[in-house]
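ARCHIVE CARD
Drawer: 12
Card no.: 0347
Subject: one protein chain, sequence and derived structure
Cross-reference: see card 0346
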Amino acid sequence: MRNQVMIRPRQQFLADDAGNMQAYTRASFDEAFRATVGASKRFYGFLTEKTGPAEIKVASGLLYASGPIHGRDVAVNIDMIGNLPVAAQKMAVVVAWAVETETDIERRNFRTDVTTNAVEPQDVAMRRARVANVDVVYGQESANPQVPPIDPGYVHIATVTLSTTGVELVEMNEAARLKSIQDIFSLATQIDLWRQIAEPLISTIRTDIAALADKLRASASSNTLEQLLYDVALLKDTVGIDEDAVSYGADRYLNLDKMDLTHGASDCRVEEGIRPNWDNITEQALQLFNPLDPVAIVDQATGQLLPKYTEEARIRVEGFAGDIALNQYASQAITLTQRSVTRTRIRYGQSMNVCTNAQWWRSGQYDPASGIFRRAGEVWEVAEADRPNAVINHRMVRVTQFWTDSWQEPYWDATPTETVINGAVIGQTMLDAQGGWYLGSDFAFTQIAADGAVTMAVCEVTAGAPDVTKVIASVTKQPADLKPYPQWTRFGIPPIYRERGKRYATVLISQGSHHVALADNNAYLNGSLFYSSDGGWFTGDLTRDLLFRAIYARFTNPRAVIELTPVSLAGGITDLDFLYESIAPEGTSIDWEIQPEGQAVWSRLVGGEGQSLLYNKPALVKIRAVFNGTSDVQPMLKLTNSRLRATRSKSGFTGVSEEITLPAAANTVTVTSYLGYFHAPDHTAAIKLVTGAGDVTASVVEDRVAEIGIRRKATFNLGAPITQFRIKHVGTAVSDRDLFQINETVWNSY
């Protein structure tokens, strides 16, 4: 204690002397803790744990506030039921802060007359306490919740993650916890043990560096340099550096950027490698074998195929409380950008060997959406800035004889359709808690004008408001089709899938003086009424909603088998290629089964088998789709614009690259190609150069065993230097049932 009250015999003792004794003691303790703990705020104790579905308990503890110590002697129970999120998640922070309070009120006598010693009782506080208060700071509800900001005077004790059902997780803030001497001693012991192990190794590092320097002085061998060029060429291809920048390059054959299929000698296809071309091919749309199939329903407008279903009103907002005129808001030109259903591609057959380069679809260098899902004649592609999202959404399975590519999102912007509609705009958002196939909505019109069509657009929601750049479907009703309330007017649309836990909006656009019925008292808690002015969305009235009924499909059976028209090809079929728009929600699937000509049973298309179901090259193949789901949700297959190819592969190929221009003339060129599934003598492969003088044969050919084939290196020692050339691959196979492909090629010149 730095200061001390001096007390002597027969000396007068004042009240201030007693107060100073406490003040000096407290100040010394404060200085001691400030010197050891530091000026930052820390806590000790306050163990926070879940005690109920939506309740936590914060135990007693101490708060070190830049020296002074504040404490709480009793635990605190906090009920969080009133702050749970409605649909997503929320983060909450348990905080503590320091206060000083005067407590322990007692009645004490105070002398009022020193002559008569008369006293007067008063109620006074007998204890001044440093107390730590505890409370909770709540964050905003979000699908990606963040920790809320707290006042600088608070100390962050614990973080609580809340869901719609209650407390999900409680995490103590170890960064602000004050460590005990025992904790520090244990940590120091661990550091000392590490020092004992690391010190001998570090002490010899000078010797190790000297030895390493001696090794680095040795010149690299030509093989080492060549391997380095090989690896750099692959890296250059990954990041997209032009090949004319240096004298080496690579191609993984995921696109046609470096191939010339129009060359006179070219006869191949590029499909995750150079492969034999098709000897014969037929293409048709997927269609129902029986147009009256009782287990299937096809929407005639869109061609969407779903298992048989009935209609049910899953969301109802009823209870008339007034109306709103559609044209009371300013008329404007609204551009509706309608998204399209994403696509699935399935390739099956003996020629569909897995290629090592398929993994590079995920590198971000290539565009898997247009490279895999684009139909013949389409010109769209994913912008380079959007390719990371394409990589995330692209789901790919590669198994021998069976390739599957699908898209995680049900709707995409690859092929949008824009429509401009004039009129006033109002919208109603809603939360799909369950997810399912939405068939439209019923609205109530209290007044119907003589003219003015009404368009209903279903769109996604951005920042809680309708987003007309993400329209999924729309329908227009003429005034004669509108019914007066209490009748409902159905705005039916082709089935669209609305994801579970996602918000959507139905937007009404019209220039007519129609009145739409409203509900009050916030009848629908999971949505809001919106109106638009000059293209901006504003909340109209949070206490009211449109009267509506959302109609969904309820499926008759959880499993449906639907047969499609068979496919035939003269000379036989070795491969099938399905490309169609579809949505398969989580927990559902479309499985494909075929019955090749000559086989008595239906077989499911799977991969990894030793022999393809099409091994015998049947001329006719029956096809059916097996829909698996629940009564609430099923997958969808869109027949319109679908494509089914039946093909038969050739047994050989010739692939010619684009012309390569060197920055300087070269006398030697090496080409190394990965030949996937190559095995002699059933297969032959030649690597050549094409120059102005014609085809050039390799001077030296070397083979090395690879994981699924060989790496063949061809060295060309040229008599005269060249600045331009093409790379030519020629491959043959004994049988079209046993093929190989060129996985990748790396070249360099010097």
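Annotation on reverse: Residues 1-28 form one domain. The chain has six helices and 47 strands.
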